[in-house]
Amino acid sequence: MKKADVKADDILSAKSEEELNKPFLGKVEKIYENSALLKIIDYDPTDKTAVSDLNQKIVVNFKNLKSVPKKKIKEIQDLAKSDVKVEKIKKAAKEKANADKKKD
More exposed terminus of the chain, fewer Cβ within 10 Å: N or C? Predict the structure, then answer.
């Protein structure tokens, strides 16, 4: 992929020859001269420890980036939105339970 094809907030498929064993999906956060900083948003479970060690961010050379089909991007965005909703619901339920305990 060329630098001109990469834009901030794009979701791209990438591979890292040193850090991660399997290809992953990342959201472009910053563009450099020959590479881009990606926030890792979808990865193989075997790379879980490495992704955590990297704080979900990695710099990848443009030659190791590929575009992702729009259908796949939509699935990931829907999944991300549903995860946020679930967390908010859990948090709200926990806060309500704590408030109910304080009333007693």
Answer: C
36 bridge partner residues: 31, 60
Domain assignments of the chain as residue spans, ordered by start:
1-68, 69-104
Share in percent of the chain as helix, strand, coil (round to 5):
45, 25, 25
Which pTM was predicted? Answer: 0.69
Instruction: Calculate what percentage of the chain has a pLDDT beyond 90.
Output: 52
CATH fold of the domain at 1-68: SH3 type barrels. (2.30.30)
40 burial via Cβ count (<10 Å: 0-12, 13-18, 19+): buried
d(CA 22, CA 2): 22
